[in-house]
Design a protein that fits this description.
The chain is α+β, with helices and mostly antiparallel strands. It has 9 helices and 24 strands. The protein has helices spanning about 80-90, 120-140, 240-255, 290-305, 330-345, 355-365, 395-405, 425-430, 445-460; strands spanning about 20-25, 35, 45, 45-50, 55-60, 65-70, 100-105, 145-155, 160, 165, 185, 195, 205-210, 215-225, 235, 260-265, 270-275, 310, 315-325, 370-380, 385-390, 390, 410-415, 420. The chain is globular, with a radius of gyration of 23 Å. The chain starts with 17 loop residues before the first strand and ends with a helix.
């Protein structure tokens, strides 16, 4: 006698057709001169070498929608991004929790402090808010059936870890007069005091390409872990290599069609730049290195977009979580030094940038005890994106790639706010610019807590 067991069929979820839209909104300053951030001196720009933009992509799968926007700015505070998200959400119905907004980290853009809205800088921040919301809303209005593909290219040639172990006695005191640094940021290229880099680089260049149903390029999102390039003509605003990448990809794939949007987001590049410290290169002309780097990675993006596989379905998931971190406070010795430094009239008697760091130390001393940061993960079909509001050390991004529940994954830094650099505890022990009080603002174990939360969020969107 045979027993026939019923066949149990488990229905697999049927994904809705993917739809996508994109838009780039101009945020070039309209009033001049404007102050630029990214260095310790006062730099005023009188004009723009090239335009600044907010570039946005909106994806829809059934009832699920996500938005990603990248702003040509050195950094943007969380309150500015939150305001832009609220306006965009009201116009589109996309939950703010499903929006990821980040800065590129060009060092040739105006500040984004919204504390004084009646000033020139305040009006510029309002322009960022309005145009970011407009970029997302316009991208949403352009949703159409689409196909999406993903690829990773190996592009190590432009990446150099900028933190170096040096011979004894070759590292100058930090801005508080302390001499315990074991690693130096941006040492003299070709120096005989170089030993070896203090950290790795991440050569994985991630490329997300989107086409409409007819196969016409609609948008492309790249992610590369390179701080910025620089070499902008004096006293000019520029989007750095991020904007040049967008221009070159658009020209190659869409003949500069304004409806096509190319975006380059910054990966985990807090300790990586474009300077070869072992083999110094000849002095470059303004914009030369920017064009060289952009040309190399744009070529990879264009080639990958033409050869990758595309799909018309991609499940969309997004998760975020707030994490409370303690702000660092100056030690009694640092506080005493800072107070004395601000009273010293002769700056030649002080370590380099002592007054700037003294002001930062006092602000931290008088400021709040904790910071509330937003961490985020998105899954788009078979790949994921992590978002962290710091200038993140590369080894943190590599650890996320290795340990993530979703692979492949890449991290967008300077996303959903900015709280300074994010070194690992090991790098805090080594010291150096990125770990100094005032450059690094939160507790020394922050990277461990943040990585744990990011991995939890990636598990949730798996």
């Amino acid at each position: 006698m045979r027993l026939f067991l019923p066949l149990l069929l488990t229905a697999l979820p049927v994904l809705a057709r993917l739809r996508a839209g994109a838009h780039a909104a101009d945020i070039t300053p309209q009033e001049w001169p404007v102050r630029l951030i990214g260095n310790f001196g006062l730099t005023l720009a009188q004009s723009a070498h090239d335009p600044l933009h907010v570039r946005a992509i909106v994806l829809e799968e059934g009832a699920n929608r996500v938005a990603i926007a990248v702003i040509d700015s050195c950094l943007v505070k969380r309150d500015v991004m939150d305001e832009a998200k609220a306006i965009a959400s009201k116009r589109t119905g996309i939950p703010t929790s499903h929006m990821l907004i980040a800065a590129t980290h060009t060092h040739s853009a105006p500040p984004s402090d919204a504390s004084k809205r009646d000033s020139l800088e305040g009006r510029y921040v309002q322009r960022i808010i309005d145009q970011t919301a407009n970029a997302i809303a316009t991208a949403h209005s352009r949703l159409e059936p689409a196909r999406i593909g993903y690829a990773v290219r190996y592009v190590p040639e432009e990446l150099f870890n900028r933190r170096w172990f040096m011979t004894d006695g070759s590292i100058p005191p930090n801005p508080f007069g302390e001499t315990h640094d074991k690693a130096r940021m941006n040492p003299p290229a070709g120096s005989r005091d170089l030993i070896h880099p203090a950290g790795p680089t991440d050569p994985g260049f991630s490329i997300v390409s989107i086409r409409n149903e007819a196969g016409k390029p609609l948008a492309l999102l790249g992610n590369y872990s390179l701080h910025y390039v620089g070499g902008i003509p004096a006293n000019q605003v520029s989007s750095d290599y991020f904007g040049e990448f967008a221009h070159q990809v658009s020209k190659a794939l869409a003949q500069d069609n304004p409806s096509f949007v190319a975006i380059l987001s910054n990966g985990t590049s807090g300790d990586v730049n474009n300077i070869d410290f072992v083999h110094p290169r000849p002095r470059a002309e303004p914009m030369q290195r920017i064009r060289e780097v952009a040309t190399r990675i744009a070529g990879h993006a264009v080639e990958a977009s033409r050869t990758m596989e595309y799909t018309g379905t991609a499940e969309l998931r997004s998760a975020e979580r707030e994490l409370e971190l303690a702000y660092r406070k100056p030690t009694p010795a640092q506080l005493t030094f800072a107070q004395a430094a601000l009273k010293e009239a002769d700056e030649s008697k002080l370590p380099r940038n002592a007054k700037a760091y003294a002001e930062r130390a006092l602000r931290l001393q008088e400021g709040p005890a904790t910071a509330l940061i937003k961490l985020q993960a998105m899954r788009i079909g078979g790949f994921a994106i992590a978002a962290i509001p710091f200038e993140v050390f590369t080894e943190i991004g590599l650890a996320i790639k290795e340990r993530s529940a979703v692979k492949p994954v890449f991290t967008i830094e300077l996303a959903n706010g900015h709280w300074g650099y994010l070194p690992t505890p090991r790098h805090h022990e080594l010291g150096g610019y990125e770990t100094w009080l005032g450059t690094n603002n939160v507790e020394k174990g922050a990277s461990v807590k943040i990585t744990d939360v990011i991995l939890e969020l990636l598990e949730r969107v798996k």
